[in-house]
């Protein structure tokens, strides 16, 4: 069944945005409530632990922007790069759980690329008409 440009497509784009927003907002909450976990991942890669705070801010801002559908294409592309970069923290072939997160981050990056192409859909902030 094809629904190009119809309400079904609009609903699916909103659902995609909300699912990604839940992930980003959850990541922000996790960093806020237990920053030590993220700091340990940063330290393992030789990066300053204080980077947890801008990462938390980015996660929170991206989550809100996804909910609102604000500047979707640049946001989705930045999220794709962010997810691809942060997958590096989880590349630990000896740990199946970390490798699952590594692959998940690449899958999310792919979804973000698709959202960048599709756009936010009609149910977004700043909709005209």
From TrEMBL:
InterPro entries: DoxX, DoxX-like_oxidoreductase. The chain crosses the membrane at residues 50-68, 75-91, 103-123. It is found in: Cell membrane. The keyword Transmembrane helix applies. Its main location: membrane. GO terms for cellular component: plasma membrane. It is a multi-pass membrane protein. Keywords: Cell membrane, Membrane, Transmembrane, Transmembrane helix. Pfam families: DoxX. The keyword Transit peptide does not apply. PANTHER family: INNER MEMBRANE PROTEIN YPHA-RELATED (PTHR33452:SF1), OXIDOREDUCTASE CATD-RELATED (PTHR33452). Belongs to the DoxX family. This is Putative oxidoreductase. It comes from Pseudoroseicyclus aestuarii. The lineage of its organism: Bacteria, Pseudomonadati, Pseudomonadota, Alphaproteobacteria, Rhodobacterales.
